Amino acid sequence: MIRPQLVLDIGGVLATNLSPLFWQLLAAESRVSEDVLYGEYKQQVSEQLWTGVISEEQFWNWVKAYAPLLHLEKCRGFIERSLRPLPALAKVSEWSEAADIHLLSNHLAAWVDPIVLSIKPYLKSLTISNEVGLKKPHPDIFAMVINKMQAGSPVLFVDDQRKNTKQAASLGWRTLLADEEGVWINEVIPILKHISEKQE
Hints:
Elements: E1 5-8, H1 21-27, H2 34-44, H3 46-50, H4 56-66, H5 72-82, H6 92-95, E2 100-105, H7 109-117, E3 123-128, H8 129-132, H9 139-146, E4 155-159, H10 162-170, E5 174-177, H11 188-199
Parallel strand pairs: 1-2, 1-4, 2-3, 4-5
Helix pairs in contact: 1-5
């Protein structure tokens, strides 16, 4: 029997995105404004951090150049405060009865581990950008997830970024854009049933 596949992002889907709270907390401890700090981050280290070119330790060293008195323990506390579970996390066990579940996220594995830990028994695969050296919407990171699926399975992909759902749609996947209000959660089971019935 070919089961549908449900591919979920983490940030903005299962947990809150780091922005803007994380940058607000860092900026309060630094010598520059939130806008300047975030702008420098996007220009200097964002791509390298999410693809594993630089380590978490190197990122915190970069932060210390702007906030030299900030301790690492406090920095990690900012991550915990900024990355909070969303209601969809509690639905994963239910969804796993209807589909094989895969996580595909642009993130640091160490940062999302506390979120993922509670749902690991329900996951078929976990693909995190800093571990594989690629980030969405690069086609090759999607190919990595495809290789972990049963061939020919229908796929539903949920993400909060249109550039990522666009890439998924180009693969023939059904897509669902996660809205901030969480309305999308009620659409998952009906879509999974629909794409499953189309295979029969």
